[in-house]
Write a structure and sequence with these properties.
heterodimer; A: about 350 residues; mainly alpha; ABC transporter involved in vitamin B12 uptake, BtuC; B: about 240 residues; 6-stranded mixed sheet; about 40% helix
Chain lengths: ~350, ~240
């Protein structure tokens, strides 16, 4: 009997169409949505991108980094350097952020990859702190107190004038819309790229390395190279995201740009409650996080306590996250990556392989 | 032609000589069984052949090339396939995906190019009916089968089996022996470490006895099992 390998599912195709519709709606949304909603969506989309990248690192690559704020911070500072020192357009300086993060990721990986498990996590955190302290010495960019993007740089960002006349809004609102569009593009491209990666043979290798590194090596998977690749890719895109966040904020300080709470702890929370090791996890997680944040933000310390308790509860009772819980119950996968072997029966289409062995159990 | 050859290979862990000037060769197409008491250095010997350990002295030759200093990854691609003593499946992947990753990376081919081979191996190892099952949910016998199938998927010239029959019931053991016999009959060269002697003697042409890291006997299974030294050391039978 002949067989073929299938990844596609009906739910997956429906989800794909829905995702495209959602992205199109997202792009035309600024025509009707108020400015604070666009700002909120910007925050959600950048957090989603960071969460997807952390999920790629920890959930697929087994690299539990607590130092991703290093790449957000260095990316943001590189963008600021491009604008303030070399007079670049802030939006065009965003790629500098990615490159700077990539350059920082090489020595970071070199040192951190010598460490395992919890030591790796702490090692990445230490490197992020060292980077923060070094950047705080950069007097041209405000040193320890930070600085703002100069007025003349933010006033004529590429595309802002066109958005102003298109939607008939003020310059500041037009800048938010531009940043939002970029965040939407970055989030969509990141998810699409990770999805492509997972469906590729590299996705199988990643899963193999995560499940059992020794066994992966014994079948010819170069575990070291794969971890390097994942770490560098995640750092590059995290750097881009950091730069984009600070194009919108337009004000930077080392403490904010290298904040372990904002750029790593919240991101880990999102991935853990949503569901680690699944593309759907961070999407659900960021929605839950946003709802909690907007309903509990007025309660100060209680807000953080609640986040902590929810994280603990999810880890104890739903270790695969809320999405894991849902997909276990329903069998739902919006982004199917599993290869299934289907028999091609010339009489009646396809059916799953069935064959009784002598010791069927 | 000798597929794999060890010449005076030694490996020490501190003061302990785990492998002591071991020499033997396995011609292409032969099955060699390795027996010896616990701690005799059997698994270490495997790690020296796969490249997971580098020897302190001696030479390992595979396919006529000196591979003594070659890393494990290179040797997988040259055709050294192994199974682990304790099955180590990729639990989050399906049985088919376990084979696909081994075949694709072990041979450096695209996923599509190895699909048919994976299906054939699944058939040979009686795992086809479980192709879409998550490896983490398999029974012990099927995990052992998956170890064998995944090693086969890398496209080996030499198959190293580490106590693959251990822990199975008599019936399960027979099923696995039949599978290994079939692979060997198709020309596969095998080195097999096993405590379940009857499983070993049902397949191999030669037996090697290891004790305290030294080869104390190598030859036809009947002759080895009859030798006084082996009976004393390994089987603990007073001669």
């Amino acid at each position: 009997m002949a067989y073929r390998v299938v990844t596609r599912t009906r739910t997956g195709s429906i989800a794909g169409v829905a995702a495209i519709v959602l992205i199109i709606v997202g792009f035309v949304l600024p025509a009707v949505a108020p400015r604070d909603m666009i700002q909120d969506l910007f925050t959600i989309l950048t957090l989603l991108t960071l969460a997807q990248l952390w999920n790629l690192l920890a959930g697929y690559g087994g690299l539990v980094s607590v130092g991703q704020q290093a790449f957000v911070g260095i990316g943001a500072y590189a963008m600021f350097a491009g604008v303030i020192l070399w007079g670049m357009d802030p939006v065009l300086a965003i790629p500098l952020g990615g490159l700077a993060a990539l350059v920082l990721a090489v020595p970071t990986a070199f040192f951190a990859f010598r460490l395992q498990g919890a030591y790796f996590a702490i090692g990445t955190w230490v490197i992020a702190e060292v980077t923060r302290l070094l950047v705080a010495q950069w007097k041209a960019l405000g040193g320890g107190t930070g600085t703002s993007l100069p007025r003349e740089a933010t006033s004529d960002i590429i595309g802002v004038e066109a958005i102003r006349s298109l939607f008939g809004v003020r310059e500041a609102a037009a800048r938010d819309i531009l940043a939002y569009w970029l965040a939407l593009t970055l989030a969509a491209l990141t998810i699409a790229a990770i999805y492509w990666l997972l469906r590729n043979r590299l996705g199988l290798a990643l899963a193999a390395v995560r499940d059992n590194t020794e066994a992966a090596k014994s079948v010819g998977v170069d575990a070291r190279r794969i971890k390097w690749a994942v770490f560098l890719i995640a750092a590059f895109v995290t750097g881009l995201t950091g730069a984009l966040i600070y194009v919108q904020t337009a004000r930077i300080s080392p403490d904010a740009a290298f904040s372990v709470t904002d750029w790593t702890a919240y991101v880990i929370f999102i991935v853990v409650i949503g569901g680690i090791g699944r593309l759907e996890g961070p999407i659900l997680g960021v929605i839950v996080f946003y709802v909690l944040q907007s309903t509990l933000a007025d309660y100060g310390a209680w807000y953080l306590l609640t986040l902590g308790l929810i994280a603990i509860a999810v880890m104890l009772f739903a270790p695969r996250g809320l999405w894991g819980l849902m997909s276990e119950r329903t069998g739902l996968h919006l982004f199917p990556v599993q290869r299934r072997l289907l028999a091609i029966d010339p009489m009646s289409g396809q059916q799953p392989p069935k064959r009784g062995g002598p010791d069927d159990q | 032609m000798n597929l794999v050859e060890l010449q005076d290979v030694s490996k020490n862990f501190g003061a302990l000589k785990v492998t002591d000037a071991v020499s033997f060769a396995v011609p292409k197409g032969q099955a060699l069984g390795i027996i010896g008491p616990n701690g005799a250095g059997k698994s270490t010997l495997f790690n020296l052949i796969t490249g997971n350990f580098a020897p302190d002295a001696g030479r390992v030759t595979f396919l006529g090339q000196d591979v003594t200093r070659r890393p494990a990854m290179d040797r997988v691609r040259m055709g050294v396939g192994r199974s682990f003593q304790i099955p180590q499946p990729f639990e989050g992947l399906t049985v088919y995906e376990n084979l696909a990753v081994a075949a694709s990376f072990g041979r450096g081919r695209s996923e599509a190019a190895v699909t048919q081979d994976c299906i054939r191996i699944l058939e040979d190892t009686e795992l086809l009916r479980l192709a879409n099952t998550q490896a983490g949910a398999l029974s012990l016998l099927d995990r052992k089968r998956l170890e064998l199938a995944r090693a086969m998927a890398t496209g080996p010239e030499l198959l190293l089996l580490d106590e693959i029959a251990g822990g199975l019931t008599e019936g399960e053991c027979q099923a696995l022996i039949a599978t290994i016999k079939r692979l060997h009959a198709q020309g596969m060269t095998i080195i097999w470490i096993e405590h379940v002697l009857h499983a070993l003697t049902a397949v191999v042409e030669r037996l090697l006895v290891l004790d305290f890291g030294r080869v104390i006997g190598i030859g036809a299974p009947d002759a080895i099992m009859a030798s006084k030294e082996v009976r004393e050391i390994y089987l603990g039978i007073e001669a």
